[in-house]
Records
---
Amino acid sequence: MLAIVHMTVNGVEQELAVDPRESLLETLRNRLNLTSVKKGCGVGECGACTVMVDGTCVDSCLYLTMWAEGKHILTVEGLKGRSGELNPVQQAFIDEAAVQCGFCTPGLIMTGVELVDSGRRYTREELRKLISGHLCRCTGYENILNALEKVVGYPKTEEKG
Amino acid sequence: MYDIEKFYEAKSAGDAVAHLAADPNAMVISGGTDVLVKLRAGKGAGCDLVSIHEIPELHGVDRTTDGTIVIGPATCFTDITNDPIIRESLPYLGEAVDTVGGPQIRSMGTIGGNLCNGATSADSAATMQTLNARLVLQGPDGSREVPVTEFYTGPGRTVRKREEVLIAILVKPEDYIGWSGCYIKYGKRKSMEIATLGCCVRVKLEADPGAEKAAGVSSSEEASGSGFLPGAGYVLGDVCIGYAVAAPTPTRCRNTEKLLTGMKADDPKIYDLIAEHVLEEVSPRDSWRASRDFRIQLIKEMARRALEQAILRGTGKGTPGASYFSPVELDEMGEAGGQVWEAEHPEEKEMPVYKKDGEVLNGQTGQVIRDTDKKGGDQ
C-alpha cells in the first residue's frame, strides 16, 4: 500500500506516493530520477548516498522516506546556479582534480556544502575527521582535502622566499 | 526496500507504547542506524516498525530546577556533542558519542538507541555506566526508572520490554557536579569503527587537607616515566570506572573504585592499583576484532590513561580530544605486557589474576600464585 509524503526536494515541493518500506535513497533515485545519489554499501558506511535533510547531511540509504515528511531535501542536482553555474565546492573539486571515478563525489560535495554552510573554517586535520563518513577508493583523499581546503580551509600563508 | 510489514509514525511516546502493545509483531525504530542495518541483513525481517523519529518531546537536552540533566533519547549524537549543557557539564559524554561511526551516522543515530540496542560496544555505554544514569521506560502500565547499571541483561539484551519506550535519560547533579572524566576508545581506525574496547574513568577531586606536608615527596618519576603526575594537592574523593567490550555487557568496576577512593591524586600507586584491580571485575573474550589477551592489556593501559586524563582535567589541565587511541600509539604501551607473561605461564591464562604487594594473586580466590619480585612480573 502506498503512502503520501510531502517534501521539498531541491527547492521544488513534491507530493509523492511512496512505499512506506522505501529508503530516501530509493525514492530520490527511482521516483525523482535524482541519480547523483549513489547506492554504495547500503549500511551507512561509504557515504555515497549522502544528501542533506533540513541542512544536515545524512546517509539516505538508512533514512526512511516516511521520515522526510515536511522536510527539505538537497542533492547535488539542487546545487546548480540560476544560469547553470557550478557550486564553489564543485568547482574546487574540478580545479583540484578531486574526482576520479566519481562515485563518491556527490556525497563528498554534499558534505562540502554542509561545511560551507556552517560558516566556519577548518584545519586539514578537522577536515579529515569531517569527511570520514565517505569512502573514496581512487584518489587517496589528498586532492579531496585540497579542494575542501580551498573552500573552507584557512587561507594559506604565503611562502617566504 | 526494507523487509517490513507495516510502518507507523508515532505522534507521542504514549502513542508509540499503545501501538507497540497492540501489535505483538512491532518494534521501535528511532534513528534507524542499527535497526535498518539489521533488517537489511534479515534479522527481524517481516516485523512492523513503530517509529519515534518525529516525536519532539524525545529530542534535546534539558536541565531541571534541581540540576538533573534530562537527555532526550531521540537526540542524535551530533546534537549531544554540540549541546551547551553537555559541553559544560558532561563534556566526556559529548566526546564519547563523537567517536560513533562517521559524521552522517552521528547526525542520524540516537543516544537512546545506543543504549536500548544493548550492545556492549556502544560508545556511550561506558560513560553512562559511570554517570549512574537513570533510564525512564514508559510502558502500557505507566513508567518506571531503571539505573543504567541494572539495564543490561546480556549481549544485545536489556530489561526493556518490547512494548516499552525509553523516554528520558536522567543524570543527577551529585553524579556530575565537581566531577571530571575521560572516555577512551580503542579501535583499529579513527572513524567508522566499533570499539575494540572503551574505557571511561571519572574522578571527583577534593582538596587534600594534608597536602602541604606531602610536598617534596616525589616517588612519581619511576612510576610514570615522565617525572610528572597530575593532581598534586588533591585526593580522589570519588572514582567511577566503566568499560565497554570488557564483558558481555557494559561494566562498572565498583571494588576498584572503592579501593582508589580517598587516595592522593598524585600518588603513583593509583595507576598500578587501577590497572591490576580492574582485571578482577571484567571478563573480556576472544573475538575476531581482538583476542582476550590483547583486550586485557588494553583494559589495564586504558584505565591508567583515562585516570590520568580525568585527574588532569579535574585540575583544569586536561587535553581536549584525547578520546581516541589507535594502533599507532601501541608502541608506547611497553613491550612486555600481559601477552608475553601469559604465553610463559599458560596455566594462569584463564584465571583472572592481579598483583598486590609484589605478589600475583588469583582474582577469584585471592590465593598467592607467584611472587613477582623474583620473576620480573607482567609489567
Note: Chain A is about 30% helix and 15% strand.
---
Amino acid sequence: MIEIRNLYKRYHNHHDSPWVLKDINLTIPTGVSVGLLGRNGAGKSTLLRLIGGMDSPDRGDIVRNSRVSWPIGLAGGFQGSMTGRQNVKFVARIHGAEEEIERVVREVEAFAEIGNAFDDPVKTYSSGMRSRLAFGLSLAFDFDVYLSDEATAVGDRAFKAKAKEAFKARVGKASLIMVSHGEGVLREFCEAGIVLEKGQARWFDDIEEAIGAYHQATDGKKIEPPKVPTSLSEAKQQLMQANLEFEQARLDYQIASDDPARNDPDDALRWRVEESRERMHEARRYVQQFQSQAKAKPRKRTTKTTKKTGRP
Amino acid sequence: MAMEISRSDSSQPNFAGPSGGRARSSWRVARSVWFALFMRETISRTMADRMGWFWMIFEPLAIIGVMVSVRGLFMSGRHIAGADYVAWMVVGLMGFMLFRENMMRSIGAIEANRGLFAYRQVKPIDPVLVRCFLEGMLKSLIFILFITIGSLLKFELMPDYPFGAMMDWLSLWALGWGMGLTLSVLGDLVPEIGKVARILNLPLLLLSGVIFPVLYVPHQYREYLLMNPIVHGLESMRMNFFSGYHTIDGIDMTYLWFWALALISLGLVLHMRFRDQLKAH
C-alpha cells in the first residue's frame, strides 16, 4: 500500500513557481495497477518520481509500505564508459544483492539479448539496446510495485511483446503504476486510474472511467472506449473513422490558431489533435495486424472471420 | 553520520539471504552504495583509460621532473638546509597533490554521477565521499611506491619520523576532503565557483611553499603565509621526513585541523541543506 498525504510539490524556477501538485491525498491499495493520466505538464512524471523516492515533496509525505522500483526502462541510470555488465553489477550492489550478483547478471543478459555488446561500453549502445538493458535490469529484481514512465514504448516490436509478457507474468505478485499516453496500454495493464488536472488528483476505481474523465476534462468531449475490431473490414472502417476525426481535429486547430483573439490557455485543441492522431495510429495497427494474419495463413477458409475479410 | 538518517529504506527488493524479506538498515544501504560506487569509480579511474595506470604514476613523476629542472635552471645555488632538494620537492608536491586532487575530483563528482540519483539509495554526498577515499588511497599507494623505489635506488626518501609523516599525510587528506565536500556543493549550485577553484590552483601551489622554501619569504609577510593551512601541513610533513630540516616558526597542525574539521562540517551541512537541489538539477 502506498499512502500519499497532503502532498505539495513545486519546482523553483527563476520567475514564479506555481504548485505542480497541490494537496494530493491518495491511497494506492496493494496489488492494484494504476494508470496516471493527465496532459503534458500536469505532473504525472513528477508524481511518479515522488512515489519512487527520486524526488522529495515540498510538503506532506509518502508512506511506502512495499518495495517500490525505480522507473523501469530508465536508461539514464547508466555510466557510459562502463560496460553493460559492469553497470548491471553496480545496480545489483546498491540493492544489496552482492551474494546474488551472478544470478542478476545472468538474468539481465538473457533478457536483454544484446549478445556480445553486453561487454561493450554503454555509450556505444543504440537507444534500443539501452532500453533493453534497462528493462532487463528492472525485471531482475522482485519489487512489489513497479513504476513505469512510458517504458513499454521502447524497443522493436518483438521486444515490446516480450516485455509485455514479462509484465503479465508478474501480475498477481506485483502491481504497476504507469504513466502513458497510449490508452491501449493503460487499458491493457491497469485496473484503476488517477487523473491529474491543475495540480489536483482524482482517483477512479475503473481505468475506463478515468480515461473518460480525462477526455471530458481536456476537451469536453466524451470518447467511447474503442472496440477491438474482429475483422479486417471492421478494422478498415475504424481506420477511416479515425482518419476523419483526425482531419476534423486538425482543421479545427488550424482555424483556431489563425484566430488572433483566441483564448485557449490549455491548448485543448492541440491535445485533441494529438489524441486523434494516436487513435488513428492504433486503428492502422489493427488493420496491419489483420493483413499480416491474412498473409500468414491464407489457406484456412473455415473460420468465419477469414471469410469476412475476403482475403486472396 | 547524520546523513544516514534519511536513508531509511523500507522498500528494498528482498533476496533469499539471511536478511531476506526485511528492509535493510540505513547503515547497510549506505555501505552497499559506497561499495558499489567504490568499485565503479575504481574501474573507471584505472581501466577505462587505455593508459590509466601508467598516467597515474607517470603524471606526478613528470611534474616532479619539470619542477626539479626548472629549479635547477633558474635557481641554481640555492639549496634547502637539512634536506636534499629533490626529495624535499617530492614530499611537497605529493602532499599538495593529495589535497588538490581531493578538492578537484570532488567538484565534478556530483555531475558525473547525476544519472545514479534515479536510484533513491544514492545520495549526492556518496560519490564525493567515495571519490575522496579512492583518491587518497591511490595517492598513498603511489607515494609508498615512490618511497620504496627511492630507497632501493639509495635515494633518501624514507621519512625519519614515519608516524608523524603519516599523521601529516592524513591531515592533508582530511583538509582536501573537507574542501571537496564543501566545493562539491557550491560548485554544483554555482558553476562559476568550480571555475574559480580551478584558476586558483596555480597561485595556491606557489603560496603553499611547494616550490619555493617558505624560509625565503620576508619576515613581515610570513604571518599572511601562515594563514594558508596547506603550508602547515607541508612544512610539518617535511620536518617529519628530514630530521635536519628547519622551517619558519608558527607551524601548527592544530590550525590545519581547525580548517579541516570546519570544512568537513560545513560540507556535510551544505550537503544536508541542498540535497534536493543537488539531485534535481
Note: Chain A touches chain B through 37 residues (CB under 8 Å).
